[in-house]
């Protein structure tokens, strides 16, 4: 009786794990979409949010020659043709690994994320509450393009390489996102929202892939801590810095004028971007590590 009960308990635990394995991408997609909406409500639809956001953008007067050169080259490299080539490489890797579902998912992720961002930018209303009279730039197309390409490379590469690809991708996307703010193409909220939208689209596609492979496959092991730990640590430290900096900038705007400089506001925005990049890439690495194994023992 004890042995039978143990087997039944193990079976129930396995079923619970598979159920959570299938549902978790939907939860992450919902939370990411809700986060993007919250960013819009706070930093676009309120006067204080717009003021703080614009102050962070205008404070990015970087004069260091090497920093300026890196930011300029990174923005220059984020061109449609270059991103298309990377996407084709990602699709090709999926085909070579006999994972047509990943190739299709990669293509859909890039298309869905970038179309969604462009449609939102074209149709969302941005009232002029901070007196800047600047057109709507929410969300950031450059950040969405860079993040979607990094996401598909993580998705299609073998599991052993996904952690390293995650760290490299997060570094690249951080530079692109910060560069768009430095160039005054976008405010920090534009880049954060773009990241969350890409994560939401990727999570939905991961959910479809997992549904397709449902039916007894065991979820894969968790990603290596060598990849997730730096992302978690970075997200926590950057989030703490952002919260502190945001409080100081708000006080400077509402209570004590000139409490902080424009450069401080810019660095606060950079901390927020860094926290968003590390957080979204952490969840994406976890999602791709949970990709079910092929049904007949193929390599994943």
Automatic annotation (TrEMBL):
InterPro entries noted in UniProt: PAP2/HPO, PAP2/HPO_sf
SMART domains, sorted: acidPPc
Gene3D superfamilies: Phosphatidic acid phosphatase type 2/haloperoxidase
Pfam families: PAP2
Protein name, per record: Phosphoesterase
Membrane is among the record's keywords: yes
Phosphatidic acid phosphatase type 2/haloperoxidase domain span: 103-206
Stretches that traverse the bilayer: 20-40, 77-95, 102-120, 140-157, 164-185, 191-209, 229-252, 264-285
Entry keyword set: Membrane, Transmembrane, Transmembrane helix
């Amino acid at each position: 009786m004890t042995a039978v009960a143990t087997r039944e308990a193990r079976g129930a635990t396995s079923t619970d794990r598979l159920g959570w394995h299938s549902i978790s991408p939907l939860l992450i997609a919902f939370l990411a979409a809700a986060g993007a909406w919250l960013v819009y409500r706070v930093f676009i639809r309120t006067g204080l949010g717009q003021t703080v956001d614009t102050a962070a953008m205008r404070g990015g007067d970087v004069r260091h020659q090497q920093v300026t050169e890196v930011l300029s080259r990174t923005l220059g490299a984020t061109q449609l043709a270059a991103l298309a080539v990377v996407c084709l490489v990602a699709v090709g890797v999926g085909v070579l690994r006999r994972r047509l579902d990943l190739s299709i998912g990669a293509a859909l992720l890039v298309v869905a994320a970038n179309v969604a961002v462009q449609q939102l930018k074209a149709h969302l209303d941005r009232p002029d509450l901070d007196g800047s009279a600047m057109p709507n730039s929410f969300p950031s197309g450059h950040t969405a393009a860079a993040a979607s390409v990094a996401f598909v490379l993580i998705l299609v590469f073998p599991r052993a390489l996904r952690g390293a690809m995650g760290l490299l991708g997060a570094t690249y996307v951080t530079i692109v996102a910060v560069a768009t703010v430095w160039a005054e193409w976008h405010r920090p909220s534009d880049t954060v929202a773009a990241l969350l939208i890409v994560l939401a689209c990727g999570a939905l596609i991961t959910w479809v892939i997992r549904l397709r492979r449902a039916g007894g496959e065991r979820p894969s092991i968790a990603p290596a801590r060598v990849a997730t730990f730096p992302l978690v640590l970075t997200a926590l430290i950057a989030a703490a810095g952002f919260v502190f900096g945001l409080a100081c900038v708000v006080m400077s705007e509402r209570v004590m004028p000139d409490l902080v400089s424009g450069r401080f506001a810019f660095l606060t925005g950079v901390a927020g971007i860094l926290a968003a990049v590390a957080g979204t890439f952490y969840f994406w690495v976890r999602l791709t590590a949970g990709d079910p194994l092929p049904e007949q023992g193929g390599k994943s």
